[in-house]
Amino acid sequence: FFEKEKIQALHSLNIGIGWLWKAFDTSDPITKDETTEVENFLNNELASLIKDLERFTPNVLIGSSGTFDLIFNKMIGEQTSIICRLELVKFIEPYIHSTRDQRTLNPAIPASRVDYVPIAFILLRTVLNLDHAPDQIQYSPYSLKEGVLSDFLG
Hints:
mainly alpha; 8 helices; about 10% strand
């Protein structure tokens, strides 16, 4: 969380997509019960983030790499780098319960990410549906380490 170019809070959460995918043995397509199980796990893991969302009430979430690259570069396209939270939730919803075959046939989803889409989008939807979640989602083509390095080298 940043305010007036000052770091207010930092979080490192154990919710990587690869780890989540291995931890939850899901059906194809993922069932509602399996989705609920993942969401319950995530809500527990996101406890510190939930507290800080209430404390700082950010108005923009900045996403980069992985899931955000897929959404903004491949699926939505490069015509926008900002999207409303509710629009993004609506956009990702059908992919959560899609089958592997459906995702494989989608040319916007690289073969290397076909299996991860449901879990990745459940994670994103869970964060976007948190109380006090920002209403605007901003895509950055730079990852955190590139941004920090850029600032450091200034």
